[in-house]
Amino acid sequence: MAKACTDGLVALIESLHLGEGDRLPGERELARHLGFSRTTIRESLIAMSAQGHLEIRGRSGCYVSTCTAPAPVPAADAMAALDALAAIGPHLAARAAQRCSAEHARRLETVTARLGRFLVNRDAPQTAREVITFFVVLATVAGNPYLSRPIKEIAQARPFPARPVAMEKAAVESFFALHVSLLQAVQNRDPRHAVPLATHCLDAFATLMGGSAGS
Predict the structure, then answer these.
(1) Residues 46, 142, 175, 33: is their CA dihedral positive or negative?
(2) Tell me: the pLDDT tens digits for 92-146?
(3) Are 76 and 163 in contact, with CB atoms under 8 Å apart?
(4) In sequence order, which residues have a C-beta less than 8 Å from that of residue 50 and are 6 or more positions away?
(5) Looking at the 3D structure of the chain, how many domains does it have?
(6) By the 8 A CB rule, do 159 and 85 touch?
(7) Is residue 136 within 8 Å of residue 8, measured between CB atoms?
(8) Does residue 70 register a pLDDT over 50?
């Protein structure tokens, strides 16, 4: 639980573009956004502070203290990550659709809204991170740690994009339309449609990133 919470905090810091010296949201907001108790959030913040990644300033809050850029990831590793997503993503979507609550739906909408902005700006690295964050949230909703673990490992490794990506307009529009349809299927608790939509969405994501899932 603690590692999953820490992974969620790291993904949130990246998605909010927080750099060294920036303040994190409060514990209550973090708990609401990530779906963990305030106690678990606090324990993860303390652990990240002990590792030097955050600075806890009493009543002032938590601040990012170090920002380490990830090392470049070989294209082969990115393709392996695409394969893993293609294999696991539809199962996560099906289970999440069976368990999706109103709060889960709001969290998925928040990620989707950020994803849309990054797609408009043709920001490939942030687009990829938001896609992974979406599936991290699906993994949390699904509640199966054996399905969740590989997705969270992909999120931590941040393998996309492994090379420059053009993000052509047609590919962007096709991917986002499928993503929104997947979001709606999960929100409507419709696992029958969530499975093929997740498959097509991840295929479109692979095309967007210049690769091909399942190859």
Answers:
(1) negative
(2) 999 999 999 998 999 899 999 989 999 999 988 889 988 998 998 898 899 888 8
(3) no
(4) none
(5) 2
(6) no
(7) yes
(8) no
Question: Shortest CA distance to 27 belongs to which of 44, 3, 7, 14?
Answer: 44
Q: Which residues of 21-56 are buried (b: 16+ CB within 10 A; e: fewer)?
A: eeebeebeebbbbbbbeeebbbbbbebbeeeebbbb
For residue 117, give its domain range.
75-208
32-48 tens-digit pLDDT: 888 888 888 988 888 88
In angstroms, rounded to a whole number, what is the distance separating the alpha carbons of residues 159 and 72?
8
H/E stretch holding 64: strand 62-64
Do residues 201 and 126 share a domain? yes
What tens digit of pLDDT does each residue of 143-165 get? 888 888 888 788 777 788 767 78
90: domain CATH number? 1.20.120.530
**Per the structure block, which two tokens stand in for 40?**
């678990």
- Let me know whether 59 and 127 are in one domain: no
> Comparing C-alpha atoms, which of 163, 144, 176, 172 is closest to residue 211?
163
Instruction: Report whether 125 contacts 96 (CB < 8 A).
Output: no
pTM across the whole model: 0.68
- How far, in Å, are 28, 161, 172, 208 from residue 124 at the CA level? 31, 7, 10, 9
Q: Do residues 111 and 43 both lie within one domain? A: no
